[in-house]
Design a protein that fits this description.
Chain lengths: 293, 343
Amino acid sequence: MNLIPPQAGFAQATTMPQPLQPPVAGQTHSSTSTATVSDHKQQKLKIETRHMNFFYGSHQALFDINLKIPERAVTALIGPSGCGKSTYLRALNRMNDIIEGTRHTGDVLLDSQDIYAPRIDVVALRKRVGMVFQKSTPFPKSIFENVAYGMRIAGIRNRSFVQETVERCLQQAALWNEVKDRLKDSAMALSGGQQQRLCIARALATNPEVLLMDEPASALDPASTARIEDLIIELKQNYTIVIVTHNMQQAARISEWTAFFCQGRLVEVGLTKQLFFKPREKETEDYITGRFG
Amino acid sequence: MSVVEQKPASTDSVIDRTNLEASGLAYRFTWQRLRESFIQMLLFLCALLSVLTTLAIIFVLVSEAIFGIPPEKAFFQEISLSQFFLETRWAPQYSPPVFGIWPLICGTFLITIIAAIIGLPTGLLAAVYLAEYASPRVRSIAKPILELLAGVPTVVYGYFGLRIVTPYVIRPILKPAEFFGVEWLWSIPVDGFNALSGGIVVGLMIIPTVCSLSEDVLRAVPRTLREAGYALGSTKFDVCVRVVIPSALSGIIAAFLLAISRAVGETMAVTIAAGQKPTLTLNPLSQIETMTAYVVNVMSGDTPVGTIEYKSLYAVALVLFLTTLTMNLISQLVLARYREVYQ
């Protein structure tokens, strides 16, 4: 069993725990097992990739990624454009399957189960591992029907259940107060920030365990960004969140763990605080201080 | 201090109106400019041509059908509107001739409905297959073949309906008793010319139109929207039916209406397959005549110019024109409405 990586707990959302050892290892650091554990609260592992390589046709986009993602925490993936962080994120709910000619080697584990195993139902997987995209993608339906979408395709007919879930998810996504009087209106009429929160609400409505977020706030103004960030911090009480971001302040504000990707390789991973203030690798330091990327 | 700093800004620069040429900003003739205005004129004339043609057609139809250029009398100056719209027979050969438009409208309506039932869903589903399911290889082969279907002359479709669809598709199903020589099976009478075969071939004919246009709009739906659907645990069919088609709905409706307009205006195929006997009926198995088929009938026959029968074709053409015009207006309204809802 590899459920329990040695690491510090971080029950509080806002305060950083004292780091002992990162729960995860880059390709050159496989020494996690030697770490000492002294915290009373141990973090369960949610997702793990082992020796994962990823290819678009003959082009290799990811090289030997070994990464462990703890449950009920925010893990940020940072790195320059084209470094493979989005590809990695999309591999976690097999979103890359849609693209022709993609393949991978190595293991991608969700709760210790290989999600690329032959008999895996991708549809069921994606219900457990939801995703929010960079560009808000409201469907051309009403606000209500957008959030109810997941239940509609699951064939849930119970009207009061659907209604309650829609309300709960909109409340979780901090959108309920703004839209409660116009649930029947087209979702396309919402502002960019509202649309993105709607997409988060829609993802929550399928009751996922993991939320993958691909630069969810990069197209938004600062006020909307702040709301999304507050929302992410709120959501990590119940969900495992993996977020790709170009905004390093954002990664610093909301994540416990940060992984730095560069040119398809996982360069460094660690507690966000540690990675930002005392990076082990020169490359990481250069990127964070803005010397490249 | 601040007063001193603002001083330079307070002195306005003098506007020089005498030295335009020296500034290099003056208008000068160049060949490039002439070419630009020539091109603009050419483009304008091209646009004007189609507008003028439309206006000319409207003028001819209206003058021949309603006003008449003296000493010629127009159709509606000889035949009353009440006969035209209240009489249920279209019989130009009778003496006196009877001109009730409803049998022709009914024929056109019947053909259009059958063609829509056959062509619209098939075309849309083919488009969904090509846009969402087919591999690039299959699409690269299937799409040109499908578009080839649009290039087949409509006369060929007409003969296909008359010689293949009626005897080898409709008859075996509706009159198996006769076809297989077994007496105890059912036998429903089918005319040699019938609206069903005409409607079927027109339906086949509009499939490429519907498919090609719909596929374009389906493929124009952003990939991000599909991915959002998949990310919520949709199957491919869920994404097609609940995300992609609703997103492309306005374009699909436009494709449908264009195809229906084509079915209404279709001429040769229905003249050959559906017959030339004006009948006020909704029975698809009987011979009918559409408005377009009647126009062909008069033009290709030996009807003397100037007779009331000859003039009647302008009245029919006017009704046909108004029908398609109404449909186009409706499609504009529908599109405007959906734009409002979805964008």
